[in-house]
Amino acid sequence: MHIEKLGLINFKNYESLSLTFSDKLNCIVGKNGSGKTNILDAIYFLSMTKSAHNPMDNQNIKFDQEYFSIKATFVNSKATDTVVCYFKEGEKKSFKINKEDYSKLSEHIGRFPVVLITPYDSDIIRESSEIRRKFFDSIICQLDHDYMINLVRYNKNLKQRNSALKSFSKAGKVNYDLLENYNHVLLDLGLKIFKKRKSFIDTNLNSFYEYYAFISGENEKVEIVYGSQFDVADVGKKLNDYVKKDIVTERSNFGIHKDDFHFYIEQNQLKKYGSQGQQKSFSIALKLMQFKALEMGLKLKPILLLDDIFDKLDSTRINKLLSMIKEGKFHQVFITDAIIDRTESLLKEFELEPNIYLVDNSKVELKE
Which amino acid positions bind ATP, per UniProt (predicted)? Predict the structure, then answer.
Protein backbone atom coordinates (compact mmCIF):
# COMPACT_ATOMS: atom_id res chain seq x y z
CA MET A 1 0.00 0.00 0.00
CA HIS A 2 1.13 3.56 -0.66
CA ILE A 3 -0.17 7.10 -0.55
CA GLU A 4 -0.16 8.62 -4.03
CA LYS A 5 -1.42 12.17 -3.39
CA LEU A 6 -1.81 14.36 -0.34
CA GLY A 7 -3.70 17.64 -0.05
CA LEU A 8 -3.79 19.94 2.98
CA ILE A 9 -5.89 23.01 3.68
CA ASN A 10 -5.28 25.04 6.86
CA PHE A 11 -3.50 22.10 8.50
CA LYS A 12 -0.95 23.39 11.01
CA ASN A 13 1.40 25.75 9.12
CA TYR A 14 0.04 24.91 5.64
CA GLU A 15 -2.63 27.14 4.11
CA SER A 16 -2.81 25.02 0.95
CA LEU A 17 -0.57 22.17 -0.14
CA SER A 18 -0.81 19.49 -2.84
CA LEU A 19 1.84 16.77 -3.23
CA THR A 20 2.33 13.66 -5.35
CA PHE A 21 4.62 11.00 -3.88
CA SER A 22 6.85 8.18 -5.04
CA ASP A 23 5.43 4.78 -4.13
CA LYS A 24 8.86 3.86 -2.72
CA LEU A 25 11.04 6.45 -0.96
CA ASN A 26 10.25 10.09 -0.19
CA CYS A 27 12.52 12.50 1.68
CA ILE A 28 11.21 15.77 3.08
CA VAL A 29 14.02 18.20 3.86
CA GLY A 30 13.86 21.58 5.55
CA LYS A 31 15.08 23.59 8.51
CA ASN A 32 13.76 22.74 11.95
CA GLY A 33 10.36 24.34 12.39
CA SER A 34 9.71 24.55 8.64
CA GLY A 35 6.81 22.08 8.75
CA LYS A 36 8.32 18.86 7.41
CA THR A 37 7.11 16.83 10.40
CA ASN A 38 3.61 18.24 9.85
CA ILE A 39 3.44 16.42 6.50
CA LEU A 40 4.16 13.12 8.24
CA ASP A 41 1.60 13.99 10.89
CA ALA A 42 -1.04 14.56 8.21
CA ILE A 43 -0.39 11.05 6.87
CA TYR A 44 -0.53 9.66 10.41
CA PHE A 45 -3.79 11.55 11.01
CA LEU A 46 -5.45 9.93 7.99
CA SER A 47 -4.45 6.51 9.32
CA MET A 48 -5.26 6.84 13.02
CA THR A 49 -7.93 9.62 12.88
CA LYS A 50 -5.81 11.81 15.16
CA SER A 51 -2.50 13.64 15.31
CA ALA A 52 0.58 11.89 16.68
CA HIS A 53 1.55 15.09 18.48
CA ASN A 54 -1.52 17.24 19.26
CA PRO A 55 -4.35 15.32 20.96
CA MET A 56 -6.76 18.27 20.59
CA ASP A 57 -8.01 18.53 17.01
CA ASN A 58 -8.43 22.31 17.22
CA GLN A 59 -4.68 22.63 17.86
CA ASN A 60 -4.07 21.39 14.31
CA ILE A 61 -5.96 24.26 12.65
CA LYS A 62 -3.76 26.92 11.07
CA PHE A 63 -3.62 30.11 13.11
CA ASP A 64 -6.52 32.48 12.43
CA GLN A 65 -8.50 29.84 10.49
CA GLU A 66 -11.69 27.97 11.47
CA TYR A 67 -11.14 24.53 9.96
CA PHE A 68 -8.66 22.14 8.37
CA SER A 69 -8.95 19.36 5.83
CA ILE A 70 -6.63 16.52 4.85
CA LYS A 71 -7.21 14.57 1.65
CA ALA A 72 -5.22 11.65 0.27
CA THR A 73 -5.34 8.92 -2.35
CA PHE A 74 -4.27 5.48 -1.11
CA VAL A 75 -3.36 2.75 -3.58
CA ASN A 76 -2.94 -0.98 -3.05
CA SER A 77 -3.13 -4.06 -5.25
CA LYS A 78 -6.91 -4.29 -4.85
CA ALA A 79 -8.22 -0.72 -4.86
CA THR A 80 -7.64 3.02 -5.01
CA ASP A 81 -9.33 4.93 -2.19
CA THR A 82 -9.76 8.64 -1.53
CA VAL A 83 -9.88 9.57 2.15
CA VAL A 84 -10.89 13.01 3.42
CA CYS A 85 -10.76 14.32 6.98
CA TYR A 86 -12.53 17.60 7.80
CA PHE A 87 -12.63 19.36 11.13
CA LYS A 88 -14.19 22.72 11.99
CA GLU A 89 -13.92 24.40 15.37
CA GLY A 90 -16.94 23.47 17.48
CA GLU A 91 -18.12 20.69 15.14
CA LYS A 92 -17.66 16.95 15.00
CA LYS A 93 -14.67 15.64 13.07
CA SER A 94 -15.65 13.79 9.88
CA PHE A 95 -13.92 11.11 7.83
CA LYS A 96 -15.05 10.06 4.37
CA ILE A 97 -13.82 7.27 2.14
CA ASN A 98 -14.70 7.60 -1.53
CA LYS A 99 -17.19 10.36 -0.59
CA GLU A 100 -19.05 8.16 1.92
CA ASP A 101 -19.16 8.86 5.66
CA TYR A 102 -18.21 6.28 8.24
CA SER A 103 -20.95 5.60 10.76
CA LYS A 104 -18.17 5.46 13.38
CA LEU A 105 -14.57 6.67 13.17
CA SER A 106 -13.47 3.34 14.66
CA GLU A 107 -14.43 1.67 11.35
CA HIS A 108 -11.51 3.50 9.72
CA ILE A 109 -8.82 2.25 12.12
CA GLY A 110 -6.64 -0.43 10.51
CA ARG A 111 -7.58 0.28 6.89
CA PHE A 112 -4.52 2.39 6.05
CA PRO A 113 -1.84 1.47 8.60
CA VAL A 114 1.27 3.53 9.26
CA VAL A 115 4.23 3.08 11.58
CA LEU A 116 5.93 6.21 12.90
CA ILE A 117 9.51 6.13 14.20
CA THR A 118 10.58 9.32 15.99
CA PRO A 119 13.34 10.50 18.37
CA TYR A 120 10.75 10.43 21.15
CA ASP A 121 10.03 6.69 20.95
CA SER A 122 12.21 6.10 24.01
CA ASP A 123 9.31 7.63 25.97
CA ILE A 124 7.64 4.23 25.61
CA ILE A 125 10.44 2.92 27.82
CA ARG A 126 10.99 5.87 30.17
CA GLU A 127 7.49 7.19 30.81
CA SER A 128 4.45 5.81 32.62
CA SER A 129 2.66 2.50 32.15
CA GLU A 130 -0.16 4.40 30.42
CA ILE A 131 2.17 5.23 27.51
CA ARG A 132 3.09 1.56 27.10
CA ARG A 133 -0.54 0.42 27.27
CA LYS A 134 -1.51 2.98 24.63
CA PHE A 135 1.32 1.82 22.36
CA PHE A 136 0.33 -1.85 22.44
CA ASP A 137 -3.40 -1.08 22.41
CA SER A 138 -3.00 1.05 19.27
CA ILE A 139 -1.50 -1.93 17.45
CA ILE A 140 -4.04 -4.49 18.64
CA CYS A 141 -6.96 -2.14 17.88
CA GLN A 142 -5.87 -1.98 14.23
CA LEU A 143 -5.77 -5.76 14.07
CA ASP A 144 -8.93 -6.56 16.03
CA HIS A 145 -12.01 -4.31 16.02
CA ASP A 146 -13.69 -6.38 18.75
CA TYR A 147 -10.72 -5.56 20.96
CA MET A 148 -11.16 -1.85 20.24
CA ILE A 149 -14.88 -2.02 21.06
CA ASN A 150 -14.19 -3.89 24.31
CA LEU A 151 -11.47 -1.41 25.28
CA VAL A 152 -13.78 1.57 24.69
CA ARG A 153 -16.54 -0.10 26.71
CA TYR A 154 -14.13 -0.97 29.52
CA ASN A 155 -12.86 2.61 29.80
CA LYS A 156 -16.41 3.99 29.73
CA ASN A 157 -17.53 1.68 32.54
CA LEU A 158 -14.35 2.37 34.51
CA LYS A 159 -15.03 6.11 34.34
CA GLN A 160 -18.62 5.56 35.48
CA ARG A 161 -17.48 3.32 38.35
CA ASN A 162 -14.99 5.94 39.52
CA SER A 163 -17.70 8.62 39.40
CA ALA A 164 -19.96 6.36 41.47
CA LEU A 165 -17.22 5.84 44.06
CA LYS A 166 -16.84 9.61 44.44
CA SER A 167 -20.62 10.03 44.76
CA PHE A 168 -20.75 7.45 47.58
CA SER A 169 -18.36 9.58 49.61
CA LYS A 170 -20.49 12.70 49.15
CA ALA A 171 -23.74 10.86 49.93
CA GLY A 172 -22.29 9.00 52.91
CA LYS A 173 -23.82 5.78 51.58
CA VAL A 174 -22.49 2.99 49.35
CA ASN A 175 -24.62 1.36 46.64
CA TYR A 176 -23.13 -2.15 46.66
CA ASP A 177 -25.56 -3.43 44.02
CA LEU A 178 -24.32 -0.77 41.60
CA LEU A 179 -20.69 -1.67 42.35
CA GLU A 180 -21.47 -5.34 41.74
CA ASN A 181 -22.93 -4.50 38.33
CA TYR A 182 -19.84 -2.51 37.37
CA ASN A 183 -17.59 -5.29 38.65
CA HIS A 184 -19.40 -7.84 36.50
CA VAL A 185 -18.98 -5.74 33.34
CA LEU A 186 -15.33 -4.83 34.05
CA LEU A 187 -14.50 -8.45 34.84
CA ASP A 188 -16.00 -9.72 31.58
CA LEU A 189 -14.38 -7.05 29.40
CA GLY A 190 -11.12 -7.10 31.33
CA LEU A 191 -10.64 -10.83 30.78
CA LYS A 192 -11.15 -10.42 27.03
CA ILE A 193 -8.65 -7.55 26.89
CA PHE A 194 -6.14 -9.41 29.08
CA LYS A 195 -6.22 -12.49 26.84
CA LYS A 196 -5.72 -10.41 23.68
CA ARG A 197 -2.80 -8.47 25.15
CA LYS A 198 -1.14 -11.65 26.36
CA SER A 199 -1.67 -13.37 23.02
CA PHE A 200 -0.20 -10.40 21.14
CA ILE A 201 2.99 -10.43 23.20
CA ASP A 202 3.36 -14.21 22.97
CA THR A 203 2.85 -14.14 19.19
CA ASN A 204 5.23 -11.27 18.41
CA LEU A 205 8.11 -11.75 20.85
CA ASN A 206 10.30 -13.67 18.42
CA SER A 207 10.14 -10.95 15.77
CA PHE A 208 11.02 -8.40 18.45
CA TYR A 209 14.08 -10.46 19.48
CA GLU A 210 15.22 -10.67 15.86
CA TYR A 211 14.83 -6.93 15.25
CA TYR A 212 16.64 -6.00 18.45
CA ALA A 213 19.59 -8.25 17.59
CA PHE A 214 19.73 -6.80 14.08
CA ILE A 215 19.45 -3.12 15.06
CA SER A 216 21.81 -3.32 18.05
CA GLY A 217 24.32 -5.72 16.52
CA GLU A 218 24.70 -7.18 20.01
CA ASN A 219 23.98 -10.59 21.50
CA GLU A 220 22.09 -9.17 24.48
CA LYS A 221 19.20 -10.91 26.21
CA VAL A 222 16.13 -8.67 26.08
CA GLU A 223 12.63 -9.35 27.34
CA ILE A 224 9.10 -7.94 27.22
CA VAL A 225 7.06 -9.16 30.20
CA TYR A 226 3.35 -8.42 30.31
CA GLY A 227 2.25 -7.75 33.88
CA SER A 228 -1.43 -7.78 34.78
CA GLN A 229 -3.52 -8.03 37.93
CA PHE A 230 -5.78 -10.30 35.88
CA ASP A 231 -3.02 -12.90 35.70
CA VAL A 232 -4.32 -14.77 38.78
CA ALA A 233 -6.42 -17.87 39.35
CA ASP A 234 -9.59 -16.18 40.69
CA VAL A 235 -9.84 -12.72 39.15
CA GLY A 236 -13.42 -12.16 40.29
CA LYS A 237 -12.53 -12.71 43.95
CA LYS A 238 -9.52 -10.42 43.62
CA LEU A 239 -11.69 -7.68 42.13
CA ASN A 240 -14.17 -7.96 45.01
CA ASP A 241 -11.32 -7.93 47.55
CA TYR A 242 -10.44 -4.42 46.37
CA VAL A 243 -13.93 -2.96 46.92
CA LYS A 244 -13.20 -1.64 50.43
CA LYS A 245 -10.00 0.04 49.25
CA ASP A 246 -11.81 1.47 46.22
CA ILE A 247 -14.48 3.04 48.46
CA VAL A 248 -11.84 4.65 50.70
CA THR A 249 -9.65 5.93 47.83
CA GLU A 250 -12.65 6.81 45.60
CA ARG A 251 -11.07 5.15 42.57
CA SER A 252 -10.73 1.69 40.99
CA ASN A 253 -7.47 0.10 42.12
CA PHE A 254 -7.79 -3.24 40.34
CA GLY A 255 -8.13 -3.97 36.64
CA ILE A 256 -6.46 -4.07 33.25
CA HIS A 257 -6.13 -0.27 33.40
CA LYS A 258 -3.28 -1.02 35.84
CA ASP A 259 -1.46 -3.33 33.39
CA ASP A 260 2.13 -2.67 32.44
CA PHE A 261 4.65 -4.02 29.95
CA HIS A 262 8.04 -4.47 31.59
CA PHE A 263 11.21 -4.18 29.51
CA TYR A 264 14.43 -5.94 30.52
CA ILE A 265 17.99 -6.20 29.24
CA GLU A 266 20.23 -8.88 30.71
CA GLN A 267 17.54 -9.37 33.41
CA ASN A 268 17.79 -5.71 34.50
CA GLN A 269 15.11 -3.05 34.07
CA LEU A 270 15.86 -1.28 30.81
CA LYS A 271 14.32 1.95 32.15
CA LYS A 272 16.82 2.13 35.02
CA TYR A 273 19.91 0.36 33.76
CA GLY A 274 19.83 0.48 29.95
CA SER A 275 22.14 2.88 28.13
CA GLN A 276 20.73 5.45 25.69
CA GLY A 277 21.93 3.28 22.83
CA GLN A 278 20.25 0.18 24.23
CA GLN A 279 17.02 2.09 24.80
CA LYS A 280 17.09 3.42 21.22
CA SER A 281 17.67 -0.08 19.82
CA PHE A 282 14.84 -1.39 21.99
CA SER A 283 12.36 1.31 20.91
CA ILE A 284 13.21 0.85 17.21
CA ALA A 285 12.78 -2.92 17.59
CA LEU A 286 9.36 -2.29 19.15
CA LYS A 287 8.33 -0.19 16.15
CA LEU A 288 9.65 -2.77 13.68
CA MET A 289 7.74 -5.45 15.59
CA GLN A 290 4.67 -3.22 15.19
CA PHE A 291 5.31 -3.02 11.44
CA LYS A 292 5.61 -6.81 11.13
CA ALA A 293 2.52 -7.48 13.25
CA LEU A 294 0.40 -5.10 11.15
CA GLU A 295 1.81 -6.48 7.91
CA MET A 296 1.02 -10.07 8.89
CA GLY A 297 -2.37 -9.31 10.42
CA LEU A 298 -3.69 -6.92 7.76
CA LYS A 299 -1.98 -8.58 4.77
CA LEU A 300 -0.39 -5.34 3.55
CA LYS A 301 2.73 -3.36 4.33
CA PRO A 302 2.12 -0.23 6.43
CA ILE A 303 3.55 3.11 5.32
CA LEU A 304 6.75 3.77 7.27
CA LEU A 305 7.35 7.30 8.59
CA LEU A 306 10.90 8.07 9.80
CA ASP A 307 11.00 11.48 11.48
CA ASP A 308 14.37 13.18 12.01
CA ILE A 309 16.28 9.91 12.42
CA PHE A 310 19.47 11.11 10.68
CA ASP A 311 19.95 13.80 13.31
CA LYS A 312 19.06 11.79 16.42
CA LEU A 313 20.33 8.26 15.71
CA ASP A 314 23.93 7.08 15.48
CA SER A 315 25.34 5.87 12.17
CA THR A 316 25.11 2.17 13.08
CA ARG A 317 21.35 2.24 13.66
CA ILE A 318 20.76 4.54 10.69
CA ASN A 319 22.66 2.16 8.43
CA LYS A 320 20.64 -0.80 9.68
CA LEU A 321 17.36 0.95 8.83
CA LEU A 322 18.63 2.10 5.42
CA SER A 323 19.80 -1.43 4.63
CA MET A 324 16.27 -2.68 5.33
CA ILE A 325 14.88 -0.06 2.94
CA LYS A 326 17.46 -1.10 0.33
CA GLU A 327 16.46 -4.78 0.72
CA GLY A 328 12.78 -3.97 0.16
CA LYS A 329 11.61 -4.86 3.67
CA PHE A 330 9.21 -1.92 3.48
CA HIS A 331 7.06 -0.60 0.65
CA GLN A 332 6.57 3.16 0.92
CA VAL A 333 8.86 5.14 3.22
CA PHE A 334 8.95 8.80 4.24
CA ILE A 335 12.07 10.35 5.82
CA THR A 336 12.42 13.88 7.20
CA ASP A 337 15.75 15.63 7.69
CA ALA A 338 17.09 19.16 8.19
CA ILE A 339 20.26 18.89 6.07
CA ILE A 340 20.04 18.15 2.34
CA ASP A 341 23.72 17.21 1.92
CA ARG A 342 23.48 14.62 4.68
CA THR A 343 20.30 13.16 3.22
CA GLU A 344 21.72 12.84 -0.28
CA SER A 345 25.04 11.42 0.95
CA LEU A 346 23.46 8.71 3.09
CA LEU A 347 20.96 7.65 0.44
CA LYS A 348 23.64 7.62 -2.27
CA GLU A 349 25.74 5.30 -0.12
CA PHE A 350 22.89 2.78 -0.18
CA GLU A 351 22.06 3.43 -3.86
CA LEU A 352 18.59 4.68 -2.95
CA GLU A 353 16.80 7.04 -5.34
CA PRO A 354 14.09 8.98 -3.55
CA ASN A 355 11.80 11.84 -4.38
CA ILE A 356 13.23 14.76 -2.41
CA TYR A 357 10.90 17.57 -1.31
CA LEU A 358 12.37 20.87 -0.12
CA VAL A 359 10.39 22.70 2.56
CA ASP A 360 10.84 26.42 3.14
CA ASN A 361 8.45 28.96 4.65
CA SER A 362 5.44 26.60 4.35
CA LYS A 363 6.20 25.98 0.66
CA VAL A 364 7.16 22.53 -0.63
CA GLU A 365 8.90 21.85 -3.94
CA LEU A 366 10.05 18.62 -5.56
CA LYS A 367 13.82 18.77 -6.05
CA GLU A 368 14.85 18.34 -9.66
Answer: 30-37
Q: Annotated binding site, which residues? A: 30-37
Residue 95 lies inside a defined structural domain of this protein: yes
Local structure of residue 327 (DSSP, 8 states): T
The closest of 80, 3, 86 to 47, measured between CA atoms, is 3
Name the binding residues for ATP. 30-37
| Contact of 165 with 252, CB cutoff 8 Å | yes
Q: Are 92 and 37 in contact (CB under 8 A)?
A: no
End of a domain among 241, 264, 299? Answer: 299
| One domain for residues 243 and 319 | no
Same domain, 109 and 183: no
Domain boundaries, position 204: 136-299
Find, among 41, 18, 108, the residue nearest to 308 by Cα.
41
Is residue 307 domain-shared with residue 352, that is, in the same domain? yes
Residue-wise pLDDT tens for the chain (368 aa)? 999 999 999 999 999 999 999 999 999 999 999 999 999 999 999 999 999 999 899 999 999 999 999 999 999 988 999 999 999 999 999 999 999 999 899 999 999 999 999 989 999 999 999 999 999 999 999 999 999 999 999 999 999 999 999 999 899 999 999 999 999 999 999 999 999 999 999 999 999 999 999 999 989 999 999 999 999 989 999 999 999 999 999 999 999 999 999 999 999 999 999 999 999 999 999 999 999 999 999 999 999 999 999 988 999 999 999 999 999 999 999 999 999 999 999 999 999 999 999 999 999 999 98
